[in-house]
Amino acid sequence: MIGRLADAVTRGVGDVAASVTDVFDPTLRLGVTGLSRAGKTVFITSLVANLIDRGRMPGFSASDRIEAAFLQPQPDDTVPRFDYETHLAALTVRDPHWPDGTRAVSELRLSLKVRPGGLLGGLRGSRTVHLDIVDYPGEWLLDLGLMEKSYDDWSARALTRLASWGATDYAAAMADVDPAAKLVEPVAQALARSYTAALQQARAAGAYDLTPGRFLLPGELEGSPVLTFAPLPPGEAPRGSLRREMERRFEAYKRQVVQPFFRDHFARLDRQIILLDVLGAIRRGPRAVEEMRAAMADILTAFRPGALGWLMQFLGARRVDRLLFAATKADHLHHTQHARLTAILEAMVRDARSRADFAGAQTRAISMAALRATVEETRTHNGQELPVVRGRLLDGGREAALHPGDLPEDPGHILTPARQGESDWLDGDYDVMDFAPAPLTLRPGDGPPHIRLDRAAEFLLADRL
User: Fold this and answer.
1) Which InterPro entries match (predicted)?
2) Residues whose CB falls within 8 Å of the CB of residue 210, separated by 6 or more in sequence, listed in order
3) Which CATH architecture has domain 24-136+265-373+441-464?
């Protein structure tokens, strides 16, 4: 406890010093997260490229007042740098490909030289605003819910969920060990590997709420004892036994991994965007949609949304005062379907948005594509005009045109079967292909093509510029 208090005081002094610096060089910390395959890396890369070259950002009101945008060394020396140049090269080479996804926390600082607006803008000089973008896996956010759980509580939930998703191999591996026997490290390692494989199997089937998140994205902790545990049914736990050690490592995971993540990264954010592959969940079926909805409800309990007064901001307090939910890969649908996709997203996150709005934060939901990979066409099929999207398929590279099916006007036609546990959609299937990025020909001053990235930037950034 004394160590915690001393650490808090030290952090408080540092936060006040940083806040005084912010008076002269304001800093906005933007968190970017989302569950696997939501497009976090592409979003950050395209956002930065389009803030540097703003020719495709008509919906971003601050564009005309930004005199220059340039990358600078990030302020956190112990956090890996987001590899912007490599990711941008992957998207802009002659034969483009999607960059590697997020596997750990990374950070990038973009400094913007901004000309003041308003009637007195011409009397004041330009100022520099630093945008610190923090990229982190959404799976790690789910771990924040572990802080209130005991090892037995977590084990019971984890085992029930694995059974419901048909991950039976771990149950077989668990049956071969005696939890009350003396700990043998190779046995613990084998059990942890089997549990990790079961999590991966459940995720492939459509599960989203999978903990601990570091088992799927271990980062620098891969192979460490703090990631070498697994759920076990309740029973005797003698000193030195396998079950006792599993419980100890579970508590160490909360103390040494989850708490520092919240303190050092998550609790310091000002704005947040949560990216969701809603179309991917719909394609997997009703159960995957309900899993995503429930996972988002759990994730949003970790946020501390709301507005802060100027004094609290000066003293270093941070809260997420704007929260944007974005359904990604909108370019996989014709634009006539985008409003329906947004309505489905709004219905999925309604409860979480209501809590954030009540706390004083501003929230919004949009459908977007950080990098447009398709073009729209109209094709005749069986005498009927169909709106389609055409692009280069990720598997094989051939060109294909797709009409994935019309999303329902009423989001309840998606969410109700999901909540009721239906195994399939009753009134049709929704098919979405995976498209590769299209080769780009960029004019000077233009960033990569997108759908509504400028509106996302307007909501998240414009008021602070």
Assistant:
1) YcjX-like
2) 139, 142, 161, 199, 202, 203, 216
3) 3-Layer(aba) Sandwich (3.40)
